[in-house]
Amino acid sequence: MSRPQPATDADADDAVELEGEPAFVLWQAAHVSQLAQEARLGGLGLTLPLYSTLARLGQRPEASMADLARFTFTTPQNMSSAVTRLEQMGFVTRRPHPRRARMVQLKLTPAGETVLEEAHALVFEVQDRMIADLTPEELASLPGILRRCRDALRPR
């Protein structure tokens, strides 16, 4: 796909139209979605990475720190800090794994399960606003398209 060249002052009408570039629009959509989600989650004392960590633990209670880090696109060191914060908030417990000495077993507390349900509702409210104008056909194809975009750029 050929890309137009950046405009000079003399030919401003030939400027690169970023609104037509999928990567730029995807970045904008992701950014405003994240901002809206963070604003809603802030009332629960959560950030998007903390929510994502709780959500993954809700899906996979046996998740390792490495799995959580991969899921939230962060480093194991940052994940350790996030889990410590969630522990301090009373949403997660951490104890040695019964069979693997180097692993930690994480578990949502009842308070963590409750806040996760509340957080899901807030995040899905943002999502519902974001997709409200899509047709059923567009909505049906959107997750698959976005997964293919994501997976094309994942490290091999």
UniProtKB/TrEMBL annotation:
Gene3D superfamilies: Winged helix-like DNA-binding domain superfamily/Winged helix DNA-binding domain. InterPro entries: HTH_MarR-typ, MarR/SlyA-like, WH-like_DNA-bd_sf, WH_DNA-bd_sf. PROSITE patterns: HTH_MARR_2. It holds the Pfam family MarR_2. GO terms for biological process: response to stress. Residues 19-151 form the HTH marR-type domain. GO terms for molecular function: DNA-binding transcription factor activity. This is HTH marR-type domain-containing protein. It comes from uncultured Thermomicrobiales bacterium.
